[in-house]
Amino acid sequence: MIDVPISALEVAVVESGTRGVETLRDTATFARRIELLGYHRIWYAEHHHSPAIGAFPPAVLIAHAAASTSAIRLGSGGVLAPNHAPITLAEQFGTLAALHPDRIDLGIGRGPGTFDEATARELRRGAGPATDAEYHDDVAAILSFLVDEVALGPLPEPWLLCSSTAGAALAARLGLPIAVAHHIRPDNTFTVLECYRAAFIPSRWCEQPRVVMCVEAICAETEQEAAWRAGPMDVVKAGLLKGLSEIPFPTPADAATHPFTAEERQALAGFRAQQACGTPEAVVRRLAQLAAETGADELMLSTPVYDLDARVRSYDLIKKHCEATKAP
User: Fold this and answer.
1) SS3 call for 159
2) pTM for the model
3) Mean pLDDT, range 154-179, rounded to an integer
4) In which element (H, E) is residue 132 found?
5) How far apart are CA 112 and CA 81, in angstroms?
6) N or C: which end of the chain has fewer CB within 10 A?
């Protein structure tokens, strides 16, 4: 049984054979349908220069989804602080929070959002990767601007995205809730949580440690179909293992004929074992296990599946099985 809220991470996959404008149209439909299913929040990730994921600014997607929904929380998962001026992020998310009170989250991350070094430099006006000190200053400045400069009324809820102990330590020092990237670096999850909880200092933003854990979750009526639906993302991951970032998001049929090496298959199987893929029973059992083992306050599901209906169906199956297994 899962007794914590469940949310969705939308990465705006641009499917092979489609255009980015179609992905944009799907984001509003996805938000409406996920809200109807009873999910707690939807976050949008920042990505750049990828044929598989649209370069759509999270703030724009949040505004678009907020206009199409009525109650679900919406936020960034996340905006990448080194790519933006702190006051710009504060103004954008302060405005969103004023327009949609008590519905907006500001999830902040550090990465470049791209595997292409030239694109990363363009985003940062020629600057290299942010140092620890620069990133810390950026996050502190965003929070300060939200309170002291923007001050439009209701504030967005700030979160820090973490996949390492460095991010966990910063979140603990600033008293911020964290979103743990288990769907990206699962081997770091328990170390990150231990670091965060041990060092946490209460703040105006958060009185005690608070954790959202993001998990890749792909669900279908059968284990075979779930594996088939997971195939396109496996192709993308295999490309990343080789250092290739220009991998389109293929159809499940094309992914099924992809020539994975033995090493790739082993790595992909190891990664999938730490996530949640399979039938509703298997996925909910695995999610419940992760929630119990980590003490997460909320689960956020990343479901990189080809076809909007299949993606929503995965969320639907999980939600219905969660409800069916709740104690009376």
Assistant:
1) strand
2) 0.94
3) 96
4) helix 132-145
5) 9
6) C
